[in-house]
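Q: Sequence in, structure out?
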Amino acid sequence: MRSIAPCVFLIAFGELSTQLAAQTQEAPAMANVQIVNATSVPVLSLRINQTLAYDTFPQGKRSGDAAVPLLEATYEAEERQSGTKAKSERITYAPGAYQSLVILGDFSRTSAPGVLRQRDSVLTGEEAGYPPNVLFQVYPHTLSRAPVRLRIINGMPGKHLAFVHAKNEVDIKPGECAVLEGQPARAQYTAVVDGERIPLLMRQEGLIRNVIIVFFLKDGMPTFMRAFENNAESKAMRAELEKARE
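A: Exactly. Output:
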């Protein structure tokens, strides 16, 4: 009598081949995105691709930067007190890279899209029809040859920012940023906003990283927050430091 064992083997081998092929398919492309809420309103809710991601996202806070399979995204920020909504353009992230999405603005309708309200802007009837004044800005966490790079962002609608270190001063308009390369890990800076001087001490020990410093308005007064630009190199360094402490 003819044996059927070879047929059984071929069927089993075919199923195994299919399983292995599925397992060896390329994993979805990932991106590491840190979201920074530097708006000048107290609290947002935030949707990502129409899905509620953060029901309560206070100003001055940031998300983690874990890898997610999200290379294209549209964001919708809602100002919780008024219910006013602002939507981003579709944003494309670089795969395998670390990036920050910084959200700026006050949801006013006095400025054209793409720019924050400038210091000398004047409200007219035409400007009242603009969409909510919110910017969604992406900054890649690129490596720098110098020890520390500071990225200074003026997220204060209608406010001029001067950033001073020693004898050097940079002027930054609302919605714009300045990059300071080659900064020490410890340094004292001064921000000047409409004549008010705000001291700012940067001090890093052990894990040294590039930094985003964003100025925004809280209850109408200038304030700032820091967000570190993590990357694969800094993550590896953090792991080594934690291992050394064990």
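The helical segments are 5-23, 232-245.
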